Amino acid sequence: MKMEMKEMMFDFVLLVNVLTLFLAVLGYLTNLYFVRKEKKRQNILTFFDYYRKMFASDSFCMLNYKKLNDGSFERNFEDEKMEVKFVQFLGDCDHLATLKTASGISDELNSYMLGWFCQKVIPQLSENEKKAFFWSKAINYLQETASFAETLQGKGG
Q1: How far is CA 114 from the centre of its chain?
Q2: pLDDT digits (tens, 9 = 90+) for 32-88
Q3: In this structure, are residues 108 and 75 in contact, taking their beta carbons and an 8 Å threshold?
């Protein structure tokens, strides 16, 4: 009788341990899911913050919008202030490329938001910028976004 009681107690303790382990794993997986979801949400918000920064009133895009639109924009490498803004634009594109991948922003939305500017900026890139390793992610981002925007334009009209 005493032996049966010990076996029953052992089985009960084992069952409690297994249930505790199961609940711990379930808690971990639930936490992991929500942490990833929150990180993705934060990346999307950061993506839109960079987008707003790129289109602030004193940004390269907005200061040159009219000339880019009518095709008269010609990049002046001697204009230091505008070159700083252009480099900031490329840096923001580099960040957007990373955030786009991390946040799951669709190609359609990305192209809708930036495709036109990417199409207009690509011809303004210098050969050194196109060849530079540290701009490769930004340049690829510009090219992919412009290419997808052209595809969308072809479908739409």
Answers
A1: 13
A2: 999 999 988 888 888 889 899 999 999 999 999 999 999 999 999 999 999 999 999
A3: no
CA–CA dist 88, 95 (Å, integer): 11
Q: How far apart are CA 122 and CA 6, in angstroms?
A: 78
Separation CA 18–CA 46 (nearest Å) = 42
Residue 4's pLDDT band (boundaries 50, 70, 90)? confident
Radius of gyration of the chain from Cα atoms?
27
- Residue that has been written with the tokens 């700083």 in this structure: 84
Q: Which long-range contacts (CB under 8 A, 24 or more apart) does 150-154 make?
A: 150/115, 150/119, 152/108, 152/111, 152/112, 152/115
Alpha helices in the chain (DSSP H): 2-54, 60-63, 65-70, 80-103, 107-121, 127-131, 136-156
Rounded Cα gap, residues 100 and 110, in angstroms: 8
Structure pTM? 0.76
Q: How many CB atoms lie within 10 A of CB 28?
A: 10
